[in-house]
Each structure stands twice: as structure tokens, then as C-alpha cells.
């Protein structure tokens, strides 16, 4: 059977370079991570296209976006890349039995996810009205940056530790100790997911955030959204507050989430997933609730 009868789908596909090269046999696409991760990070591809269309790239972004596009899935015939370098193309064609299998054709789920990500990028860019001082609502940026600090890990950790040091009631200490556990758990889980997914922050984001750690160059999920949702649930469960204050706590969490997109820090899906993740993290905290019964040693230390 001749190679021309190979049923490889025409490129590009959602997985990238699975199509035919100009000269050689179909080049199989080797994905470097799980399908979900690969598809979610595909956002970078749509993002770079988006940036190109809007014509508002900053210096150096063109190269970055181009490299992303190249990596993510342009047709090898249309865009030279290390895989389609002359030396690779000139390699002897192996016997039919050793020829690579054709790449997978795009599933409905992949196509739907890609469309969702493209819409997400477009919508998030439109909502990023405070992404810079000269943006449409640039004058509101300092206010939103204040909100950013209100949902940041450092003030929450510092405040909880301070409260623990000052608290004189065993019940108060128990709640604060669990809040500390919740905040640390949140930092760890968000760092793990960010490190796995590695979705870049929107290209219109200005990286001028208050204290970051290395994984904070990635945007999925929003750490502010996870923290806001988790702390909101925590506070509503463990503090006795009047209704207006309870409403205020919920509003704060929602506004912190929305402000992430307005500041250009995140896409909408980063924040939406962050809210869901933070909401569920509270279930973990509840499940592993630390008490003098479940963690006597810990409480012995704090009750001294
Ligand atoms: C003790 C210790 C390791 C503290 C780290 C606190 C810290 C730097 C947290 C990072 C908070 C942050 C910048 C999260 C990113 O939020 P996004 O909403 O931009 O994802």
C-alpha cells in the first residue's frame, strides 16, 4: 500500500502537528503531558493568535506567540520547526511496518474545548479594562490592586499567625489553626495545579504583582479566586456574623475574582475554576479538621 492511502487528517488538528509534511510520511505528534493538560494549555495557542489579531503585542511577544503557535500546532508544511528541519525531512523513510501510525482526529470534546478557550481569551481580553494605567478603566487600577492585596496569601497567613499568637480561647485557637492549615493547603494545591497545567498569564497582563512565587507566572487556576472562595466558606461557617457582614464577605470573594480578569491577571476560566477549586478545598479542610482530639500534639504546642 502506498503512503498516499494513509487516512491522516489534514492539519492543523487540536493536538497540533499530526498532519502530513510536504515530503515525508505523516509525522506523529508526541504529546508531552496528559490530554487534559495538553488541551488546557492549548490556550496559549489561541492566546497568541488572539494577540496577533488585536495587533497589540508588546515587544518580544510576537516571537513568544510565534514560538507558541509553532510548538502548539501549525501545519509542518506551512511553518518550519525543528521537527521539520531539512535533516529530519531527509531521513530515510522506514519500511511500512515501522511507519508511524496516523495521529488522532479531533474529537468533539477537543473541538468544543478549543472553542471555549478561544472565547475565553477573547472575552477576558475585553474584560481586562484595568490591565494598564492607560487602559479604558486604568484609573481604577490602584483600587483593584488594593483588592488584590486583600486576597493575597501573605496578609492572610500573617494575620492568622498573629491571631493565633494573640488568641486566648481554645476554641479561637482551634479555628485559627484550621484556617492556617487551609491557607497552606491552598498554596500547595494551587502551586501543584499551576505547575502541571502551565497556562501562561494573558499577554496583556503587566507582571507587577505584590510578592509572588515561581509558579505565579502561570495563571491556571487563580490563587486569589481559590483563596477567596475557600476563606469565604470558612468564615461563613466559623464566624458568627450579622447578615450584612455575611453578604459583604460573599461580595468580597466575588469582586476579588472579577478583579483578577479586569486587572488582566487571568482569563475567565482561571477564575471560574479557582472558585470551584477553593469551594472544594474547604471540604478537605472540614474532612481533616484539626482538633484537640484528632491532633493532640499540635494543640499541646499551641495551648502552652
Ligand atoms: C510562606 C510562604 C511560602 C508564603 C507565600 C505566599 C505567597 C507569595 C503567595 C502567592 C500569592 C499569589 C501571588 C498568588 C497568585 O494569585 P493569582 O490569582 O494571580 O493566581
UniProtKB/TrEMBL annotation:
Catalysed reactions, as listed in the record: presqualene diphosphate + H2O = presqualene phosphate + phosphate + H(+); (2E,6E,10E)-geranylgeranyl phosphate + H2O = (2E,6E,10E)-geranylgeraniol + phosphate; (2E,6E,10E)-geranylgeranyl diphosphate + H2O = (2E,6E,10E)-geranylgeranyl phosphate + phosphate + H(+); presqualene phosphate + H2O = presqualene alcohol + phosphate
Name of the gene this protein is made from: LOC112107386
Record protein name field: Polyisoprenoid diphosphate/phosphate phosphohydrolase PLPP6
Biased composition (Basic and acidic residues): 46-72
Cellular component, GO annotation: endoplasmic reticulum membrane; nuclear inner membrane
Positions with biased composition (Low complexity): 73-105
Membrane topology, record value: Multi-pass membrane protein
Subcellular location: Endoplasmic reticulum membrane; Nucleus inner membrane
GO biological process, one term: lipid metabolic process
